[in-house]
Amino acid sequence: MTSGRTCSPDLLLSIIIPVYNEEETVQEVVERVLDVPYRKEVIIVDDGSTDRTRQILSGLDAPEIKRVFHEKNCGKGRAIGTGLAHATGDILLIQDADLEYNPAEYPVLLQPIFEGRADVVYGSRFAGSGTHRVLYFWHYMGNRFLTLLSNMFTDLNLTDMETCYKVFTKKALEGITIEEPRFGFEPEITAKIAKKHLRIYEVPVSYYGRTYQEGKKIGWRDGVRAIWVIVKYNLFRF
């Protein structure tokens, strides 16, 4: 288990942004990320976009930005794995490219790590008073069910296992390899960090969800896959 020493906010923050066909939002997301007041590197992994996303990314000019391009679409989990492989920071944070999550909330996410209390922090959409767009009932129930099932296997008491906002110290991810290519990354990484007996915290975050017409990509098949991923990585794999 990691020691409880206080961490300096001057540590390098690696922000990993997996991107696939997000021409409408990616530039604004990156600009918001660049505005956060931390030493940082921004690792943008384009996962084989077929719209104007690549051209937009190529036009972004900031010394903090690292761009990696997949030749074909491999899935969010693969893109995050690529981002982690290129990260050099002391703290690693996952950021979606679709404006559903607000980078202005990084201070809330990072505070438990800076204070030396946490090795991993999840930003929960369901744990507090943050602003939430009202959308799909069954999508919400699916998230709650998958979180409950994951908790039953991991013996954690998370409220939002499927959240995008996950923050890790570099040491917390030592020895962990991401295997799931798509959205199975969420239950996979949760199972793997639970087995390491790390100090895991949740903090409330806002959520500005979007509709499928606006570009939301996760579907019911990913939910079915997540059930198998929960069983697989908790019972059969490290």
Automatic annotation (TrEMBL):
Listed name of the protein: Glycosyl transferase family 2
Q: Which PANTHER family does the UniProt entry name for this protein? A: RFBJ PROTEIN, UNDECAPRENYL-PHOSPHATE 4-DEOXY-4-FORMAMIDO-L-ARABINOSE TRANSFERASE-RELATED
Glycoprotein: present as a keyword of the record? no
Drop me one GO molecular function for this one: transferase activity
Transferase: present as a keyword of the record?
Answer: yes
Note the InterPro entries from the entry: Glyco_trans_2-like (IPR001173), Glycosyltransferase_2 (IPR050256), Nucleotide-diphossugar_trans (IPR029044)
Please state every residue range assigned to the domain named Glycosyltransferase 2-like.
Answer: 14-174
Source organism per entry reads Desulfosudis oleivorans (strain DSM 6200 / JCM 39069 / Hxd3)
One Pfam family for this entry, by name?
Glycos_transf_2
Which keywords does the record carry? Transferase
